[in-house]
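Hypothesis: this fold can be encoded by more than one sequence.
Test: take the structure tokens below, design a sequence, compare later.
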């Protein structure tokens, strides 16, 4: 898998994960588990030079 394909995969996962987080209760174990992956993806995308200002709907 090329770097570009991996970056696209992570961006798609970030968007999908945020959609699930919006549906979950913030005080639930499920939300807390998703938030861990959300932070990981946010770090990966930011380190790859992606500006998350428009993509990040959770903003935590």
């Amino acid at each position: 898998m090329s770097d570009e394909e991996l970056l696209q995969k992570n961006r798609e996962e970030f968007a999908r994960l945020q959609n699930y987080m919006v549906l979950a209760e913030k005080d639930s174990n499920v939300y807390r588990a998703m938030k861990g992956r959300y932070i990981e993806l946010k770090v990966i995308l930011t380190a790859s030079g992606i500006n998350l200002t428009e993509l990040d709907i959770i903003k935590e």
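The mean pLDDT is 95. The longest helix spans residues 3-23.
Hypothesis status: open.
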